[in-house]
Amino acid sequence: MLVLSRKNRESVVVGGSDGFHRVLKVTVLAIKGANVKLGFEVDADVPVHRSEVWERIIAGGRPSEAEQDEREETREAG
Q: Where in the chain are the domains?
């Protein structure tokens, strides 16, 4: 596991070089106590899920309707 430290408003970029055409940019948007709010910039056709949702999908389940709505609202806001 790669571990990086970032301050508020700092970002990490994944991909975009050496043949990786897709880029994922993760930005620290806010830090409040033990909570960190992250922003993700990625192509609209690339799925982004919280880990507990991803684990359900991999196990053969589907994201709940509320989780799908949350994702659509978040993409529209970004």
A: 1-44, 47-78
